[in-house]
Each structure stands twice: as structure tokens, then as C-alpha cells.
UniProtKB/TrEMBL annotation:
<dbReference type="InterPro" id="IPR043594">
    <property type="entry name" value="HMGL"/>
</dbReference>
<dbReference type="InterPro" id="IPR020472">
    <property type="entry name" value="WD40_PAC1"/>
</dbReference>
<dbReference type="InterPro" id="IPR013785">
    <property type="entry name" value="Aldolase_TIM"/>
</dbReference>
<dbReference type="GO" id="GO:0004419">
    <property type="term" value="F:hydroxymethylglutaryl-CoA lyase activity"/>
</dbReference>
<dbReference type="GO" id="GO:0006552">
    <property type="term" value="P:L-leucine catabolic process"/>
</dbReference>
<dbReference type="GO" id="GO:0046872">
    <property type="term" value="F:metal ion binding"/>
</dbReference>
<dbReference type="Pfam" id="PF00682">
    <property type="entry name" value="HMGL-like"/>
</dbReference>
<dbReference type="Pfam" id="PF00400">
    <property type="entry name" value="WD40"/>
</dbReference>
<dbReference type="InterPro" id="IPR001680">
    <property type="entry name" value="WD40_rpt"/>
</dbReference>
<feature type="repeat" description="WD">
    <location>
        <begin position="555"/>
        <end position="589"/>
    </location>
</feature>
<feature type="repeat" description="WD">
    <location>
        <begin position="400"/>
        <end position="443"/>
    </location>
</feature>
<dbReference type="InterPro" id="IPR015943">
    <property type="entry name" value="WD40/YVTN_repeat-like_dom_sf"/>
</dbReference>
<comment type="pathway">
    <text>Metabolic intermediate metabolism; (S)-3-hydroxy-3-methylglutaryl-CoA degradation; acetoacetate from (S)-3-hydroxy-3-methylglutaryl-CoA: step 1/1.</text>
</comment>
<dbReference type="GO" id="GO:0046951">
    <property type="term" value="P:ketone body biosynthetic process"/>
</dbReference>
<dbReference type="InterPro" id="IPR019775">
    <property type="entry name" value="WD40_repeat_CS"/>
</dbReference>
<keyword id="KW-0456">Lyase</keyword>
<keyword id="KW-0853">WD repeat</keyword>
Length: 648
């Protein structure tokens, strides 16, 4: 509740805690004994913990930030368990507790020892275990050292490892837990994930697979640390209960929670949030597998991969395909833009089944689309030289700005200093548009380029733009856009698509993959001391020789898996291929579709790949016919197929 601006009535807080316990939850963090001067929302902590009805077998810990908070909790008389916190980051510690990390750990250990002397049970939190908003990536050995010190001081559940800004993914969590569990008992470790990039549930599964059986969450994913930039929300209670219940993992709250869900959302969710722990017992026969009908349809010549077909497809080739950003409580939506000048939106449920929700004709072929950060609006780049904003709630569309030639790409850029829309055009410019005043008359900034924009990607703070002259421009976008690199690509023919990838810790963008019409992909690191890190590989070529040669097909799109760093390529040969760039190996290639695959995008969860098939004009007007004039969109379950192969 700390992040709520409006003071939540005490009665509502107590009611929420008791309703959570009614659902079968065995541990609810009730309040915080922090100074009301710093967090006014918690000024009623004495009343809340005293008045809440205690149940046998349920714990109601309270958060204490320091010795003063502990003394107040002891004086209250109703407290039998506390939670303390520290950080694995120097800068975060100074901003959150106004002292060094070393001093913070010393103070916390003193609080633990005093609490134990007062016969209180103690639990701990470590913040920034994956990365810090100020210091960057956190070294797992630092987290392990802090964990061990607090275990030794007397925390019964060594620490809850907190991914405070939600940048962790399966890979980084796997590496962290391997380090932590090498010297610490698994039964004394818990996890606490924020869902900033939609990775929290997959991270819980990694922890479960490691033997961890305690995970923190909050109702509707609300809450977060008021002193952490980027801490946009906790893991939603309803999501983790639903997932674990479906996997057959007993939590003690699944059925009751689902039956009571309407009570939460009938007012209480708007009033407060209580952090609680999900206890995951036993193992699940369904772990790592799904029922056969998930993301699956009967095979046919039009659907050789048995994938889910999206209803009401476009009438012409799909040029753009995007999932909405992950936002707690919001359904999954898929948007497409196509050469028939129509933009379409579908809602996708958890089994991959889709329902057409909305569409608009924008008056010109759609060349790119982008979601606004709140998931309620869509930017549309069009061949009619205009970029528009479509508000889905009101169904209103407004022109954002215009170029002198068709607009090929659009990307939303959100930094600490500004937010804007970046567009790239065949008029040889990049433009940046201010969304605060619409319609805009002039762009915030314009960058003149030596040639037309053919492709681009943005993964903050990096932007990459591919030009018609086979040069790639790399920009930093964390302040005013600044060019940091201009390189001629190692590919010899027209650039078709580009996608930025992150470093091996899956935290910061570090390079890009570029695809061209020559059936080849280039892997390029922006900063490397070893030229051999950059390489190219052949793809989307006929498996057999034709008249003594391989048939070469264009690479139409590239998409990286958000958790594994592996990539998918799709091409004019109608195939989808999965690759591990770090191992420099192919993971899998699909059977050919009946038409070229023109676009592909992977959902932020990493579970599903959406792809479109249709005529891509790779064979010119001679290859066009009424039979291939339309387009189809499919959903494919991709997570297992895109996992890197284990090293022998």
C-alpha cells in the first residue's frame, strides 16, 4: 500500500487481510512500522496489527525498517513476527536507507538479534538481487554474501530474494539461485519478483525447479518500493495461484481464491494491497508439459504446424505484428497492420484462442505499428506519409505527425528524461514526436540520414536503424538521441529486418541481429574487443540443391526470446527457424508453410510466437495470384523449442 497516494481507510486494510486469510493464505504481511513522516499510508500500523483477527496457523509479519520500528512493534504487543530488509546495491542502499550497504547490513543484523531476544520470528528481504536502477547488474556473489550474513544473524527464512525493478528473467534467476544455493539450504530461501517485463511467473517456475517453495506476491500485482525507479508492480496473487493450481501444485488457496476473486475486485483492489507468501508444496506431473490442445489445431496443408489460426485475418500481406506490453490485470492483445490499409486487434486467451476485437482503415498501407506504454493506444506508421495514434477506449484516431515520404518504422521511447515516438521514413529522416500536444505540428527533433530507413528497432536505451545504403546507425536514447556507431553491414544485399538483443545476463541491450534478402543473418555487437564475436550465418535456403545451387530466400523478420536470448527467423521460404546465437547452432526448422512468413513476434512471457503468412513479393508481380492475395496469422507455442541446448 506504500505507493498509494490516497490514504486507505484502516477498516478496508483489516478487511482485505482477513479476506485473504479466508482464502486459505497462511502468511500475510499486515503492515509496516515505518515512520509516518516517510510513508503516511502506514501511520495506522498499530491499529491494523492489533485489530486484525488472528487465525491459528497463520502468520502476520510486519515490516520494520530499523531499531525504532522494532521497538514500536515490540511495544504494540500484538506482533510475533517481523520482516527486515537490506540491499545488495550500494547506491540503492544509500537512497533507500540513507547509509552504505555495509552499514545497512550491520544495522539489520542488530535488529535481527534484538528481535530474536524478544522471542520474535524474523524474516528478511534483499533488494536489487538481479540489478539496481542506479548501479546496473548485481553480482550474485554479493547477494550470496548478504544472504549468509543474515542467515547467521538469525533469519528463519534466510532471505526473500527481491528483483526490485523486475529486470530478471529465467537465465539471470537461474544463475543467481545456483550461486545462492551452493552454500545455503534451499528451505531457507524465498523469492520476490516484480513483473515489470512480464517475467515474474517464469521466474517463479525457475525457483520452483530449484526446490524453492516460498514466493511473495500481492493482490492484483499492486505495490512496490517507493524509492526504486522502475519497480512497477509485484507479482499478482491471482496469477501465481492460477498458474500453480493449473500445474497441480498445492498452495492451500487455489480453489478458495478463485471462488473469492470477485470479492477482491469489488472495491478492495482499488483500496489497498497486502503482500503475502505463496507456499508451493510437492511436485507436479504437469510441470514442463501442457495438454495437447494448448496452442494446437488439426494439421492441414494450410496449417502444417498444427498451430492456432487467428480468426478474421487481413485481406492482404501483414507488414507489422505486435503484442501489447505486459501490464498486470490486462488481457493479451495482438495487433496487425497490413497492406489492405487496415489495422486489426485480437484478444488472446491463455490457451491461444483468439477473438477479433476492433479494426480501423487508416487510408494507406500500414508499414509498422507500436503500442503506447499503457497498452490502450496504438501508433500506426503508414505509406500515406502520416503516423497516427489510435485510442482503443474511445475508438478515436488522431494524426501525430508526417514525413515527406512513406513512414517505414515507429517505436515508443521512454527514458528517465523524456518520452516520445520515434519514426523512420523513406525521406531519409528520423523524427521524434512529443505526445503531450496532439496533433503535433513539428517534431521535437529530426535526424538527417544518408539514405532511406528500411528497418529499425528500439530496446531502451539503444536504437538501431538500417538504411538503404547497407549502413547501420546505432543511437543512445537515454538523453538526447546521440549516434554512437555507424557501420557498414557484412551483408551484401538489401537489409530487411533488425532486432536488438541483450547481454548474457539478459539485462542490457548489447548488439543486434540483421537479416537481409540474401538468406543470411549478421550478429553484431555494438562494443566488443574481439572481432570474432561478430559473425554471419546462412538461413532460409533450400535444403536440397536446385540445378546445382541452393535456392535463396529473404529473411523477413527476426524475434528474440525474452528469457533465453535465442532467436527466431522467418523467411520467404515459408519456414520458421530457431537459433542459439551464443552456441552458433540451429535449434529447429519448421515444415514449410504454403506461403512466405512475412512477420513474427514473441510474447513477453516467451510462451507464444505469432506469425503471419502471405505473399511478400519476393518473386515480383509474376508470382502474385488471387490464390495468394490474402494473409493468415497463427500462434505457435515456442518456449520449449527455443530453449538453448544443454552443454555436454
Amino acid at each position: 500500500m506504500a505507493l498509494f497516494q490516497k490514504i486507505v481507510p484502516t477498516e478496508n486494510k483489516i478487511s482485505l487481510i482477513e479476506r485473504l486469510v479466508d482464502c486459505g493464505l497462511k502468511c500475510v504481511e499486515a503492515t509496516s512500522f515505518v515512520s509516518p513522516k516517510w510513508i503516511p499510508q502506514m501511520a495506522d500500523h498499530n491499529e491494523v496489527i492489533s485489530r486484525v483477527r488472528k487465525r491459528e496457523g497463520v502468520s502476520y509479519p510486519v515490516l520494520v525498517p530499523n531499531m525504532a520500528g522494532l521497538n514500536n512493534a515490540i511495544k504494540n504487543g500484538s506482533v510475533n513476527e517481523i520482516a527486515v530488509f537490506t540491499a545488495a546495491s550500494e547506491s540503492f542502499s544509500r537512497k533507500n536507507t540513507n547509509c552504505s550497504m555495509e552499514e545497512s547490513n550491520r544495522r539489520v543484523q542488530e535488529v535481527i538479534k534484538a528481535a530474536r531476544s524478544a522471542q520474535l520470528t524474523v524474516r528478511g528481504y534483499i533488494s536489487c538481487v538481479i540489478a539496481c536502477p542506479y548501479d546496473g547488474v548485481t553480482n550474485p556473489t554479493i547477494v550470496a554474501k548478504v544472504t549468509e550474513s543474515l542467515l547467521d544473524a538469525g533469519c528463519y527464512e534466510g532471505m526473500s530474494l527481491g528483483d526490485t525493478i523486475g529486470v530478471g528473467s529465467a537465465g539471470s534467476v537461474h544463475r543467481l539461485l545456483d550461486c545462492i544455493l551452493s552454500n545455503n539450504p534451499v528451505e531457507r530461501i524465498a523469492v520476490h519478483f516484480h513483473d515489470t517485463y512480464g517475467q515474474a511467473l517464469s521466474n517463479v517456475l525457475v525457483a520452483f525447479d530449484k526446490g524453492i517453495r516460498v514466493a511473495d506476491s500481492s493482490i492484483a500485482g499492486l505495490g512496490g518500493c517507493p524509492y526504486a525507479k522502475g519497480a512497477t508492480g509485484n507479482l499478482a496473487t491471482e496469477d501465481i495461484v492460477y498458474m500453480l493450481d493449473d500445474l497441480g501444485v498445492y498452495t492451500g488457496s487455489g480453489a478458495k481464491y478463485q471462488n473469492s476473486k470477485r470479492l477482491f475486485f469489488r472495491g478492495l483492489v482499488n483500496l489497498g494491497v497486502a503482500l503475502f507468501r505463496t507456499f508451493m508444496f510437492g511436485t507436479s506431473g504437469a510441470f514442463g508439459s501442457r495438454p495437447g490442445n494448448i496452442f494446437s489445431s488439426p494439421a492441414s496443408t494450410q496449417n502444417p504446424l498444427h498451430d492456432i489460426e487467428v480468426p478474421s485475418p487481413p485481406d492482404d500481406t501483414v507488414q507489422a505484428l505486435k503484442f501489447n506490453p505486459p501490464i498486470a490485470g490486462q488481457p493479451v492483445f495482438l495487433v496487425s497492420g497490413s497492406w489492405d490499409s487496415v489495422i486489426r486487434v485480437w484478444q488472446v486467451n491463455e490457451t491461444g484462442q483468439c477473438e477479433a476485437k476492433a479494426q480501423q482503415n487508416v487510408g494507406g498501407p500500414v508499414l509498422d505499428v507500436e503500442w503506447f506504454e499503457d497498452g490502450t493506444k496504438i501508433f500506426i506508421a503508414s505509406a500515406d506519409k502520416q503516423v497516427r495514434l489510435w485510442d482503443l477506449a474511445s475508438n478515436q484516431m488522431v494524426v501525430v505527425g508526417a514525413h515527406d515520404e512513406p513512414i517505414r518504422t515507429c517505436h515508443w521511447v521512454k527514458s528517465q528524461n523524456y518520452s516520445c515516438l520515434m519514426t523512420g521514413s523513406w525521406d531519409k529522416t528520423l523524427r521524434f514526436w512529443d505526445m503531450r500536444q496532439l496533433p503535433t505540428q513539428t517534431s521535437l527533433a529530426t535526424i538527417q540520414l544518408p539514405d532511406k530507413v528500411y528497418c529499425s528497432d528500439v530496446l531502451y536505451p539503444m536504437g538501431v536503424v538500417g538504411l538503404a545504403n547497407r549502413h547501420m546507425k546505432v543511437y543512445r536514447l537515454d538523453s538526447e538521441p546521440a549516434e554512437v556507431k555507424d557501420v557498414e553491414t557484412p551483408l551484401k544485399f538489401q537489409s530487411r529486418c533488425v532486432a536488438i538483443f541483450k547481454d548474457k545476463s539478459n539485462v542490457m541491450p548489447t548488439g543486434f541481429a540483421l537479416g537481409s534478402i540474401e538468406g543470411r543473418v549478421a550478429i553484431q555487437y555494438v562494443e566488443t574487443t574481439n572481432p570474432k564475436d561478430n559473425f554471419t550465418f546462412k538461413c532460409h535456403r533450400s535444403p536440397e540443391l536446385i540445378n546445382g545451387y541452393q535456392e535463396i530466400y529473404a529473411v523477413n523478420d527476426i524475434a528474440f526470446h525474452p528469457n533465453y536470448g535465442t532467436l527466431a527467423t522467418v523467411g520467404s521460404d515459408g519456414r520458421i527457424s530457431f537459433w542459439d546465437k551464443d552456441a552458433r547452432t540451429k535449434l529447429k526448422t519448421s515444415e514449410p508453410m504454403p506461403a512466405p512468413v512475412t512477420r513474427a513476434v514473441i510474447h513477453s512471457s516467451g510462451q507464444m510466437l505469432a506469425y503471419a503468412i502471405g505473399y511478400d513479393w519476393s518473386k515480383g508481380h509474376e508470382g502474385f495470384s488471387a490464390a495468394n492475395a490474402g494473409s493468415k496469422i497463427f500462434l505457435h507455442a515456442c518456449d520449449e523449442e527455443m530453449k538453448p541446448k544443454q552443454k555436454k
